[in-house]
Design brief:
alpha/beta, seven-stranded mixed sheet, 12 helices, 12 strands, about 20% strand, globular
C-alpha cells in the first residue's frame, strides 16, 4: 500500500527544514476559500476525561469538528478495504517503476544501517520495493520481510530487489501478501507463544532467558505466505518463528489505510516487534501541497481524502501521530515535521511539501 505522491529526495541532498510549519499553516489558512473547502480538515481534536488536545494554535485551527482524532483512535466500525484499488493501480503500472528509490531513508533513519548483527526488519506496505532497496544496499546483513495488499506490487518488488542487491550481500528479502488493514500479521514473524512471552516481559519488567521453554512454542507453519516466506524454515534462525522484529517501517503506508483501521495496524506492529524494537514512520503531514490539491468533494473525513482511483490519503498532525502511537503502547523517541520546498522546473512554481518523521519504541 505504497502511496502515490511522494517526491523522493536523493541521499546526497537530504534536507528537511526549508521553512517553518507554523508559517505555512498561517499562509494556507489565509488563502481565499480555504476554510470553506478544507475547514473541517484543519484540526484534529481528541476529547478525553482530562484534556482536549488541539492541533494548531490559530483560531481557525482550534475549531472543534465532528470528525477528528476521535475518529482515528476510537472508531471501530467496519471500513472497506482499499486493496482492490491498489491492485488495479500496481497492475496498471507494472511495466515501469512508478516509485523512485527512497535513498534518503538511511540518512533519515540511521538505525537501518547498524550492522553489528543481522537486522530483522518488516516493511508494512512495501509496494514495489522503493523503501527496501536502500536498506539492503546499506545493510548487508539485513533480513527484510515485506508485506503488501497487492500481489502485483510484490511481484515487481521481488524483481526490483533482486536486481538491486549487491554481489556478495547476505541480505535476504521475504515478501508476502497481507492486507494489514483487515488481517493479522502471520505467526512466522512472531508466534503466539513468543507474543505472550513478550507481553509478560513488558508487564513484569523481567528479561526472559532465550532458552526458557516453560511454555511450548507453536510449530512454525511453512505453508503460510509466498514461496519466498516458506523458505524461512530452512534457515538456522527459525524455530517456531523468527522471534520478532528489530524494526518495523511504515513509509507512506498508514495514510493509505482507512482511519477506522489505523489502531489495528499499530497494534499488529507492536505485537511482532521485539521488546525495545523500533517503529520508523514517515507519511504525509498537515498542509502538505498535495492536501491542497484535493477538491472538496474528495474529502471523506477529517484530514482524509480519496483519489479518483479509490485510494486514500490522510494528512497527519504531530498530535495525531503522538496520540495514535502512544495509545497503541509505543514510546515516542522522535517526532517532527519535515518541511521541504521543491521547485516545479517546468512551471517554475515552488512546491511546499510537509511530511511527518517519527521514531517510536516498544517498551523493553
Amino acid at each position: 500500500m505504497e502511496n502515490v505522491e511522494d517526491d523522493s529526495l536523493s541521499a546526497g541532498a537530504y534536507y528537511s527544514q526549508d521553512f517553518e510549519w507554523e508559517a505555512l499553516r498561517d499562509e494556507v489558512e489565509r488563502m481565499p476559500g480555504f476554510l470553506d473547502h478544507h475547514g473541517h480538515s484543519i484540526v484534529d481534536t481528541h476529547e478525553s476525561s482530562s484534556s482536549s488536545l488541539k492541533v494548531c494554535g490559530s483560531a481557525a485551527s482550534s475549531r472543534i469538528v465532528e470528525e477528528g482524532l476521535d475518529a482515528i483512535v476510537e472508531c471501530r466500525d467496519e471500513a472497506p478495504s482499499t486493496s482492490t484499488s491498489w491492485e488495479t493501480f500496481h497492475t496498471r503500472h507494472s511495466r515501469n517503476l512508478f516509485f523512485k528509490e527512497r535513498r534518503y531513508l538511511t540518512k533519515e533513519f540511521p538505525d537501518l544501517c547498524k550492522a553489528d548483527k543481522p537486522l530483522f526488519l518488516l516493511e508494512i506496505g512495501c509496494g514495489t520495493g522503493s523503501s527496501v532497496v536502500p536498506v539492503i544496499r546499506a545493510n548487508k546483513q539485513a533480513v527484510v520481510h515485506a508485506c503488501d495488499c497487492s500481489a502485483a506490487a510484490l511481484k515487481k518488488a521481488s524483481e526490483v530487489v533482486n536486481t538491486a542487491r549487491d554481489p556478495g550481500s547476505t541480505s535476504i528479502f521475504y515478501p508476502f501478501l497481507c492486507d494489514i488493514s483487515i488481517s493479522k500479521l502471520p505467526n512466522f514473524l512472531c508466534c503466539s507463544a513468543c507474543r505472550r512471552k513478550n507481553r509478560q516481559s513488558e508487564d513484569t519488567g523481567l528479561e526472559l532467558l532465550a532458552n526458557d521453554r516453560t511454555e511450548s512454542h507453536e510449530q512454525f507453519d511453512a505453508t503460510m505466505g509466498t514461496p519466498e516466506s516458506k523458505n524461512l524454515s530452512g534457515h538456522d534462525f527459525v524455530s517456531c518463528c523468527i522471534g520478532g522484529l528489530d524494526i518495523v517501517t511504515m513509509i507512506f503506508t498508514l495514510s493509505a489505510i482507512p482511519v477506522e483501521k489505523m489502531a489495528h495496524v499499530l497494534a499488529e506492529c507492536l505485537e511482532v516487534l521485539k521488546p525495545g524494537g523500533l517503529l520508523l514512520f514517515r507519511d504525509y503531514g498537515l498542509y502538505d501541497m498535495t492536501m491542497l490539491r484535493f477538491a472538496p468533494r474528495q474529502r471523506i473525513s477529517s484530514c482524509m481524502y480519496q483519489r479518483e482511483d479509490g485510494t486514500l490519503s490522510y494528512f497527519f498532525s504531530l498530535e495525531a501521530v503522538r496520540t495514535l502511537f502512544t495509545q497503541a503502547g509505543l514510546v515516542e523517541r522522535e517526532l517532527e515535521y519535515c518541511c521541504v520546498q521543491l521547485m516545479n522546473r517546468r512551471k517554475q512554481v515552488p512546491m511546499k511539501r510537509v511530511w511527518v518523521h517519527a521514531k517510536f519504541q516498544k517498551p523493553e
